[in-house]
Amino acid sequence: MKTAAYDDLVLRLRAAGCVFAEDEARLLLDAANGSLLEALVARRVAGQPLEHVVGWVDFAGVRVALDPGVFIPRQRTTFLVDLATEVLTGDGVVVDLCCGSGALGLALAHRRPGIELHAADLDPEAVACARRNLGPVGGTVHHGDLDAPLPERLRGRVDVLVANVPYVPSADIALMPPESRDHEPRATVDGGADGLDVVRRLAAIAPGWLAPGGTVFVETGTDQAPPAVAALASAGLDARVHHDDDRDATVVASTWRGCGPWS
Ligand SMILES: C[S@@+](CC[C@H](N)C(=O)[O-])C[C@H]1O[C@@H](n2cnc3c(N)ncnc32)[C@H](O)[C@@H]1O
Questions:
Q1: 159 and 101 inside one domain
Q2: Mean pLDDT of the region 210-218
Q3: Ligand 1 centroid vs 246 CA: distance in angstroms?
Q4: Which residues belong to any copy of the Methyltransferase small domain (predicted)?
Q5: pLDDT attached to residue 2
């Protein structure tokens, strides 16, 4: 793409500090023209994340619609999706807790179109966004705290539970890039003092939902993996750590071997 408009846009984006100005200029010119394009560029130059400005992100091979204020799925989380895909059969029951935009469930539904998919989040804006993404693949999105809104009939029936929960230690949030700090609500990332508050809650509730042999997948920081394993193991789950250097991603996968109190 070599036009005066493109060259001008690259210069404006570069001046605003956009490292990938050429790529961003192409995406913005594809997204809109005229006054709408100008409005999008103004938002980007003011510091809004590109994904919120154009309204989507490519994640694990699918296009995920994204609204401002909703957590932007990170490419490292595709590792969790890859691990979950390996154990998922075509007609499995999948739950995506702390689903945000619904990106994880959407990617799994594309890879295993026969699954029964449920997702849930506490934030109404995330729920609305996830409904937009998961409605077309037959997913159901629930609104509420962690597992509270899930239908009781799923107890003891979940084959794969994916949960990219908030896991940044509270004190580290100040060190995050401004794009995240200023445009993703604190509740999307803040995991408490050691970052593992929600992971511990997840460990406590997971055995009640998982089918025998079912697995819960949760992303953590590398240093957080041992205490996360301890929390999941103390809940009776068989927990293992997976790490991918290329994506700088750590996932704890924990399988429920026993029979839950609901089975
Ligand atoms: C790190 S973001 C991940 C979103 C999505 N899983 C992804 O990877 O793109 C965490 C999400 O957890 C949600 N959340 C935080 N606390 C929650 C809670 N107690 N119950 C349900 N959702 C919660 C936030 O609203 C946010 O959407």
A1: yes
A2: 97
A3: 24
A4: 77-168
A5: 73
